[in-house]
Design a protein that fits this description.
By secondary structure, the chain is mainly beta. The chain contains 5 helices and 20 strands. It has helices spanning 34-39, 136-139, 155-158, 291-296, 305-312, and strands at residues 3-6, 16-19, 41-44, 47-50, 63-67, 72-77, 80-90, 93-96, 103-109, 112-119, 122-128, 160-169, 182-191, 198-205, 215-222, 230-238, 241-243, 249-250, 264-272, 275-285. The longest helix has 8 residues, at 305-312. The chain is globular.
Length: 325
């Protein structure tokens, strides 16, 4: 168990959650309100106007911000790194709080952010849809090239068939009998045909098959702590759990399995009238061995790794795992 909760601690009327350092459960993003979760990730400006709404002569891609789950954000403007600053929300309005932060505030709209930036007494209003990489114009001092796509190719890391296992943790209510249960998983992460930064996750476990999935989730891809970038959930479901925007934040460079090559950890949680549970999914591309994991801790191998996968991994991933391993 990577976390536990103490309710009404010392009779103070406050609940405290304690998480093991270095695990997904310790990621502060997992415990944010939904509005705060909406802020997480990259925000790239695509237009700019003055306070009256009139277009101005400025690179529309000049502003780039990355918001993190610990309520910090990095800001780049015209290719200059303006540092990392603390942010907060009051309803659908937000701002940076520390004394040396740029004078930036924003309103959350249905399709993104409307960002106000005051520079030397002049007001600039940026349209910022979510997602994307740092544009070429931000990297060459603000000289726009007319494009904002950047050079990241997230498919190189993410688009693959995957194999691994998932485990249920901290289960309560009707789910409690499954607490600690774990199952092998097959499936894939696929990019959308018309996009290089959106896609979907499709998984099934050893109780089902490709036509009886465990998980179907639309995702988006953006920058992360490594060149692999990160994967963020947008909409879908995992077993009995609904999965919404930023319920999953999967960064291969910032998880409990970051020390292993090309391995990811997905963390989610669910609560309904029947009870609650946390779930963790550990995946590697199909055909890749797990011998480095065995060397560290054999208990972290998928259950059917030795009896089935080590032979099957040299062929095509099947539509169903054999039930007679």
């Amino acid at each position: 168990t990577d976390s536990f909760k103490v309710e009404d601690m010392l009779g103070m009327g406050m609940d405290f959650t304690f998480a093991k350092e270095g695990t997904a459960a310790a990621d502060p993003a997992q415990y944010l309100p939904e509005t705060d979760k909406f802020m997480l990730g990259n925000w790239q400006s695509t237009g700019v106007a003055d306070i009256l709404g009139d277009p101005i002569d400025m690179d529309p891609y000049a502003l780039f911000m990355t918001f993190n789950g610990d309520h910090t954000a990095n800001v780049m403007f015209k290719g200059e790194d303006l540092g990392t600053h603390e942010w907060s929300l009051l309803g659908d309005w937000g701002s940076f709080d520390d004394d040396d932060a740029p004078d930036i505030s924003w309103d959350i709209l249905d399709d993104g952010l409307e960002v106000s930036y005051v520079i030397d007494g002049e007001y600039y209003v940026f349209d910022c849809p979510k997602g994307g990489s740092i544009p070429d114009s931000a990297m060459n001092g603000g000289q726009t090239s007319g494009e904002s796509s950047g050079d990241a190719n997230y498919a190189d890391f993410w688009e693959s068939e995957w194999y691994g296992w998932w485990i249920m943790d901290n289960a309560t209510g009707e789910y409690e009998t499954l607490d600690g249960g774990y199952w092998d998983v097959c499936g894939g992460i696929y990019m959308d045909d018309d996009s290089d930064d959106t896609g979907f996750v499709y998984l099934w476990d050893d109780t089902g098959n490709i036509d009886d999935p465990l998980c179907v989730v639309d995702v988006s891809f953006g920058e992360g702590t490594t060149d692999a970038g990160s994967m963020v959930s947008e909409d879908g479901w995992f077993w009995t759990a609904d999965v919404g925007h930023a319920d999953w934040i999967v960064d291969p460079g910032a998880s409990s399995v970051s020390g292993y090559d090309h391995m990811i950890e997905i963390y989610g949680s669910w609560e309904d009238d029947d009870g609650s549970y946390d779930y963790y999914v550990y995946l590697r591309p199909w055909g890749m061995d797990w011998e480095d994991v065995r060397a560290d801790d054999p208990s972290n191998l998928p259950y059917y790794y030795d009896s089935w996968y080590v032979d099957a991994m040299y062929g095509v991933m099947p539509d169903e795992m054999p039930q007679d391993q």
